[in-house]
Amino acid sequence: MPTPGKWSQIMLPAALEGAYEMEVVFTRHRGKDTVYIGLPVGTHARNLALSTWAGEVHGLEMIDGVEARDNPDSVRPGTLENARKHTVLIRVAPNRDKVAIDVLLDCRPLLSWQGFQKSLSLFQGQDQPDWRRPTVGVTHGEDMRVAFHSVRIRRLPAGWALPGMAGITVPEKLVPVAHFAFDKPAERFHNSGSLGAQTRLEPRGSVTFTKPGHRDAPPKALGDGARLVDDNQPGGLIGDRSLLTGRAWTVAVWFRRNRATNDDFLVYLRGLDGYGGGSPELNVILSPKNDLEVNDFPDATHAGKQYLLSGVPVKPQAWHHLALTFETEKKATDGPGRLRVYLDGRRLGEYDDVFIAGALRSGRSALVFGCVYLRYVSNTWERTLDGVLADIRIFDLALTEPQVKELLDEVASSVKPDSLGQPSHQDDTAGRSAGGN
Questions:
Q1: DSSP assignment string, 342-383
Q2: Domains in the chain: ranges and CATH
Q3: Per-residue pLDDT reduced to its tens digit, 341-389
């Protein structure tokens, strides 16, 4: 989007009133000035200014007649890295004459503001012809060039609130498309997610289920778990790969490793030829040294293999929460996307250009938990986790970092601390730098 003048914008074909969530994905290729997002608030249009005043601040314009540069509610510095794709998530919730606005930039909280709607205003000359229609745009720099890749808007029901922010709307309870918990009478996993019986998680090989009070039983908040053992009695859980074929997804699982036996698999997406069997794959592994590893092999030759993450210690004989999120502009079956990895609520890495389409397109591919399946090699399950899996959830959206922490806190708040793994002290870009495949 070239910007030869002082102000250039795109008015979006949507009319918004009430509470909503808006996600904007963009890249600033050149320049150092403002990227604007116009927000319908109450009965007026308001602006979020990113990198305004040549990168001095991020903030709302204006608050009580004061522009972002001079407003104490703004965030300094207003850094935006050029030639990098950025994601802004904004939640707006009017409540009578007040409003609450919450903003995340690249999955990290940027600002939260609440106050009277009349306190917010636009610069003179920025009035919108239709205040209900959101906008995206840029301003000031003669050398500015910004590409807006996508805008996604979701209306939010009244009454959902972010703790500590009256009126900020987020789901009280995130609803996954698949939520697998053990069904005792049927001796299988039951899906209580929105897809219900349409999709299942099937135990294969040697899988038993924990009983309350057993030393391997998960914390009570997780229900029963699937007990897996080492390669002498291999087994695992197989799910439906179609859950991961959309534009975005999240896979979350609680696990406990009792004993290191090999490169044991936590999550495995690929053809059922098995590890190293000549088809694309994405895998999450626990090494013999109790380190977490994440690898992406985009093609059958493994020529472009990507060792995304390694060297992250995982405490054995303790419960940990793993979450993977993925999002792309089209569908996961069409091209590369951005993968984020979380352990115990902390983001360990963010990686662009992760290609899983090959693994999803294979006619013999599957989503497997706890092992690797060598069906077409030796008809066995191998590299099985010696431990327990519990509370497997799959979402059809890429959860934000606060939402991943919500999943963790559902359990962590009611469990003895010594039974949970400690959050990793690695940097957010442990193993490989974010985006550096």
A1: EETTEEEEEEEEE--HHHHH-TTEEEEESSEEETTTTSEEES
A2: 7-155 (2.60.120.200), 178-419 (2.60.120.200)
A3: 999 999 999 998 888 877 776 666 678 888 776 554 444 556 777 888 8
